[in-house]
Write a structure and sequence with these properties.
By secondary structure, the protein is mostly helical. The chain has one domain: Farnesyl Diphosphate Synthase. About 70% of the residues lie in helices and about 0% in strands. The protein contains 17 helices and two strands. Strand 1 and strand 2 form a beta hairpin. Helix 5 runs antiparallel to helix 7, helix 10 packs antiparallel against helix 16 and helix 13 packs across helix 15.
């Protein structure tokens, strides 16, 4: 199957070196389990599934499930399989997102839709969703499958609602937060909740981890929305600028509209949205800069990161809790580094 992508290595390469510590063998086991799932697909489909799964993203959701398991008593094979399920669901959502966004680049390589076209890509995403649910149904308790199905439904519903609100300048910031809570935070939350579920009769710890995952997921999506405007494709490893190109209204844009003369700003933003892929990114950033939208967006992001960190106070101290606490700090640091913007001179490697 080619050289496997090491989970711990992919995370370390993105600035989280060493934070996973003794969980690395379990993360490697998730990778191995993902490779074994190829046999469940028809031989003709395996190269497509392999290429999609081996793209090897951060594997953040499996890591959250394993850390939640570790902090509530320890990790076993049930957590490893949960990591596999979560990564397959997440990968399926990315395949579908890239179709909606007409994105050509993901994880430093071509997207499924750019390789095989949107028709095959949408069916590939469906197949990954279905196989993840099949794996979840194999647990002795139906609770796992029910939770995964519920979270998947929430994610897809969030994407549908966001698509319905494209180019809708009446979208309010609380509505935007609700959309990203559905489309991103739901999977973070269920990763943490189910990671604790296998160990834990401690309802308070499970609830604290679920709240941590929710706030971390909202913050992560705010960061990703800022990255789409202010990041560099060479560093992000995926297509950027797709939000305004497809009419999505994200937090920096909504903050600018909330702060300024809506008549003038709406006209300018309407023109940018109408331009689609031809929208002038520098013009957009200039509009946002007039209202300090990036800085105000960081304030919102920091509130959710602080909320995530505060939920950890209910958990026992130790390496797993410290690793969970490192994630909000890392996301905050990456968001702050976007301040230099894509138009600044590139930093040396």
């Amino acid at each position: 199957m080619g050289t496997p992508v090491a989970l711990a290595g992919s995370i370390r390469s993105r600035g989280l070196r060493g934070f996973l510590g003794p969980l690395e063998p379990h993360l490697d086991a998730v990778e191995e389990d993902l490779r074994r799932q190829l046999d469940a697909f028809a031989p003709e489909l395996r190269p497509m599934v392999r290429a999609t799964l081996e793209a090897g993203g951060k594997r953040l959701r499996p890591a959250l499930a394993l850390l939640a398991g570790e902090v509530t008593g320890g990790v076993d094979d049930r957590h490893v399989r949960l990591g596999t399920i979560l990564e397959m669901v997440h990968t399926a959502t990315l395949v579908h997102d890239d179709i909606l966004d007409h994105a050509e680049l993901r994880r430093q390589g071509p997207t499924a839709t750019s390789r095989w076209g949107p028709e095959l890509a949408v069916l590939l995403g469906d197949a990954l969703f279905a196989h993840a649910l099949q794996l979840a149904a194999a647990y002795p308790t139906p609770h796992v499958c029910a939770e995964i199905a519920r979270a998947t439904n929430t994610v897809c519903s969030g994407e549908i609602l966001q698509t319905l609100r494209r180019q809708d300048l009446s979208l309010a910031i609380p509505e935007y937060i609700r959309l990203i809570e559905m489309k991103t935070a739901a999977l973070f939350e269920v990763s943490c909740r189910l990671g604790a579920f296998f160990n834990c009769g401690d309802a308070a710890a499970t609830a604290a981890l679920a709240r941590y995952g929710r706030d971390l997921g909202i913050a992560y999506q705010i960061y990703d929305d800022c990255l789409d405007i202010y990041g560099r494709e060479s560093e992000a490893g995926k297509s950027l600028g797709t939000d305004v190109a497809t009419g999505k209204l994200t937090l920096p844009v909504l903050l600018a509209l909330d702060a300024g003369d809506r008549t003038d700003d709406c006209r300018e933003l309407e023109a940018l949205l109408a331009a689609g892929p031809a929208a002038d990114a520098r013009r957009l950033r200039a509009l946002l800069a007039r209202h300090q939208a990036f800085e105000r967006g960081l304030e919102v992001l920091d509130r959710y990161l602080a909320g995530a960190a505060a939920h950890l106070a209910e958990l026992p101290d130790g390496p797993a809790r410290r690793a969970l606490a490192a994630l909000p700090r890392t996301i905050g640091g990456r968001a702050a580094r976007l301040r230099r913007g894509p138009d600044a001179p590139a930093e040396g490697v």
